[in-house]
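Quick start: what a row looks like.
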Amino acid sequence: MKYMSITEVGKKIYMIDVEVAGLRNFIATYVLKGKSVAIVETGPASSVENLIRGLKELDVKPEDVSYIAVSHVHLDHGGGAGTLVKFLPKAKVIVHQRGAPHLANPGKLWQQSRMVLGRIAEIYGEPEPVPAGRIIAASDGMVFDVGNDVALKVVETLGHASHHLSYYEPPSNSIFTGDAAGIYLNEIDVIVPTTPSPFRLDIALESLEKLARLKPSVLYYTHFGKANNAVEKLHTYARQLNLWANIAKQALEIGEGLEWTSRKIVEIDEAVKKAREYIEGHKVLGETVLGESVRGVFDYVKNFG
């Protein structure tokens, strides 16, 4: 059967919708075809089969893949790495140095994910270990060249997680943002926060400014898809995070909690207001955006002011 959820999104850049649990427009994997091939984001373990089907549709031979670059080790981004490397004999997995131990030994990550995410963790599936010899513990500024004018430059973008990387692709002036720039609901052109505890607003804002200084023309979101007006979107997200923090600050000042904060965010944040029906009808975002993400911002304001 022809795999239809593949889009050519840039010169030598293809997007595969891995359709985890049948959810479309939720998790994207990007394939960069140079002399060899680089893959950005694996998605979770449960959708690796869809990803492999997409690679076949793109005529990517398993031995042609040199790199698998993950933004961070959360299950929906790097959870499939251990499963995927078994099918790609030459591929090395690029991850932040603080994330590397969790790819090699994902047991603790899986336990914590089940505790925090509950049924959503089961949707994503249990991650398999990546052999230590196939992990590249990356740091800011490293460049991975796959030939034919295709390369990925590592940009450390902490805040969403303490081990988060984004990837800049100089020839196309584009950035693969992971979760550093929020969630882009491409069907309605809205950005919503992804800020689970322990979220660091101060560091996340610095990361957004760091990305904006690159003056990218395109952002490639893991959740989900290609977006133009890149710098404007980065600044919009920074303003949105500050808005959420101000609402949380107000809640704490008057002795209110998470429920009040969520309600006020829906009332005041125009993007969330526009996306509310979409979010509430989504089997994952319905729990994470106005639950985990609000908690992350609320906890930050409570702990750091």
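That is the whole record. The chain has one domain: 6-230. The longest helix spans residues 230-253.
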